[in-house]
Structure formats: structure tokens, C-alpha cells
Amino acid sequence: MASSYSFLSTWCVAAPIDRVWDALADLPGYPEWWKGVRKVDVLEPGEQGDRGIGTLYRMTWRSKLPYSLIFDSRVTRMEEPHVMAGRASGELEGAGVWRLFEGAEGTVALYSWDVSTTAAWMNRMAPLARPAFTWNHGYVMRQGGQGLAQKLGAELIALS
Predict the structure, then answer these.
(1) Burial bucket for residue 39 (CB in 10 Å: 0-12, 13-18, 19+)
(2) Distance between CA atoms of 94 and 114, rounded to whole angstroms?
(3) Which residues contact 31 (CB under 8 A, 6 or more apart)?
(4) Contact 71, 41 (CB under 8 A)
(5) What pLDDT is attached to residue 1?
(6) Which of 37, 10, 21 is CA-nearest to residue 113?
(7) Domains in the chain, please, with CATH?
(8) For residue 39, what are the β-bridge partners?
């Protein structure tokens, strides 16, 4: 039986919203600055090439724990520079949404990720390994916030 997870991550970066949006909307560029992302391939272009609604990506993620996750993500919503959403399928199934807000100090990037695991080994291990899987997600997201700030040459104001 699949295990469900709901995560909410917040990055506050001292950079303009347009620069944060450009980095987050360029999924194939993630491996350049986000340590947990090993590979992003475009499987099908969307409405506006590789960044529009309908674009299908295959993503490979890895962190401290000794396993990789591979899943596809299709862009379902793009409202530049404020909202980007997608549906995951593969080893993870569910939905993720980036919401960006600009303030006097910079940009807040809020990511909600509601997924279920489909890999049999993860589902069997979930009753005991859930805290480790949750910690791993947090670790990957912290790496992303730090990598984004570094890519933009900006201060990371807050991270959660």
C-alpha cells in the first residue's frame, strides 16, 4: 500500500522575483545548482517548448540516503512569475506547486509537495523509515534553497 506525504518548504532569497522564477522554471538547469537533482530530461515539450504547460520531464533525485528516486513531472500550470505546478508519476505520484511572492527583502518561494510512494520497497519500509524519508526530503530542499541563493549570488534570508 502506498504511503502518502505532504511537505511544505519555504525559501526566502534576497533576489527579485523574476530571477527566482527564471531559475525555478528552468527544470533542466536544476542539476547545475541543486545538489540533490542528478538529471532532468525533457521527454515531451509543452505549449512553449521546454518551459510551458504540458512539458513532461523525467527527474532523477538523490540525497544522503542510499537510493535514487526517478519520476516524471508534467507541468500543469504556469502563471509567471507567481505559480508553477505539476503532476508527478513514477516512483512518486502526486502534485507539487511553487508559489512565489516578492517583498521588500526579496522573494519567498513556497513549495507544497503532496505525493505517495509507489516503489514496493519504500512502501514496505514506510512504517519504520518514514522519519528518514521525511528527513531526506528536508535535506534535499535545504540543498535547493542554498543552491538557488548561490546561483543568484544572493543571500538566503530564511529556509524551512
Answers:
(1) middle
(2) 6
(3) 37, 38, 39, 40
(4) no
(5) 76
(6) 10
(7) 4-159 (3.30.530.20)
(8) 60
C-alpha grid cell for residue 11?
Answer: 525559501
pLDDT of residue 50: 66
Place of cell 509543452: 46
Q: Which residues pair with 79 in a beta bridge?
A: 83
Q: Looking at beta carbons, which pairs linking 67-76 to residues 24 or more positions away fall under 8 Å?
A: 68/38, 72/43, 73/27, 75/46, 75/51
Q: Give the whole-angstrom CA distance, residue 80 versus residue 82.
A: 5
Residues of the chain with pLDDT under 50: none
Q: Which long-range contacts (CB under 8 A, 24 or more apart) does 140-143 make?
A: 140/36, 140/61, 140/63, 141/7, 141/9, 141/111, 143/34, 143/35, 143/36, 143/63
CA distances from 114 to 49, 84, 107 (A): 26, 15, 23
pLDDT in tens, 49-94: 767 899 999 999 999 888 899 999 999 999 999 999 999 999 999 9
pTM over 0.90: yes
Cβ–Cβ under 8 Å, residues 43 and 56: yes
DSSP class of residue 97?
E
**Residue 92, all three cell numbers:** 512518486
The C-alpha cell at 146 is 542554498
